[in-house]
Design goal:
globular
């Protein structure tokens, strides 16, 4: 029996490209000390690499996977992040979900971006199991593991976008576990860091997932 090469489905990247152009434009608006062409080239080159690295991967919503890190970047914009933070956000799942490793990211985008991406990959390995007694120790562990606070900030944006799209996950028990993890671990970390807008958005999404009827009654009044 002959081996066959797996067929990678065709992916429509038009929406992702539209979002990237919009993201670049918004960054150029607040990052006045960096030449617009530098912002454009830096973020577009990062997008192209991440898009190709994730090629063929799809979200449960049916969208190209690359839309997730781009939309996570939008959730960071109120903090006016630097280019390294935005690059790291675009690349945050590359080490974990593609054949490319930390060394490749460092080679292409520099040690600073690679270090943040590696930190994000390590955070993803920590799982909340629901034990109340471990909540505070998990929060402390997450913060202690991070040498650069930008790792946590990108992780919060990643988690917020995942919460916003959690309805697409088919397993209700996993949706509940993710929401509880977000409520008990990530929202308090955002609060501790003074990122109150993100804390409130995380808590709102958790409430929506964990108490859908109460959420609907409040939001439709």
């Amino acid at each position: 029996m002959s081996e066959t090469t797996p067929i990678i489905p065709e992916v429509d990247y038009r929406e992702a490209e539209r979002l990237m152009h919009e993201l670049i434009s918004k960054v150029q608006e607040y990052m006045k000390r960096v030449p617009p062409e530098t912002i454009d080239k830096t973020l577009w080159d990062t997008y192209v690499f991440a898009r190709d690295a994730h090629h063929g991967q799809m979200r449960k919503s049916g969208e190209a996977y690359i839309t997730h890190p781009i939309l996570a970047c939008f959730l960071l914009l109120h903090l006016k992040p630097d280019l390294v933070s935005l690059q790291s956000c675009i690349l945050h799942d590359v080490i974990e979900d593609t054949p490319f490793d930390r060394a490749e990211i460092a080679k292409r985008f520099g040690e600073e971006v690679a270090s943040i991406c590696e930190g994000l990959s390590k955070l993803s390995a920590i799982k909340y199991r629901g034990e109340e007694r471990t909540v505070e120790s998990l929060r402390k562990m997450l913060i202690a593991m991070v040498e650069d606070l930008r790792v946590i900030i990108v992780k919060l944006a990643d988690r917020l976008h995942n919460m916003q799209t959690l309805d697409h996950h088919p397993d209700p028990k996993k949706r509940e576990r993710i929401a509880l993890e977000t409520l008990n671990i990530y929202a308090p970390i955002a609060d501790r860091l003074g990122i109150f807008r993100m804390k409130e958005m995380l808590e709102t999404e958790c409430f929506r997932v964990l108490h859908p009827e109460a959420y609907m009654s409040i939001t439709t009044e």
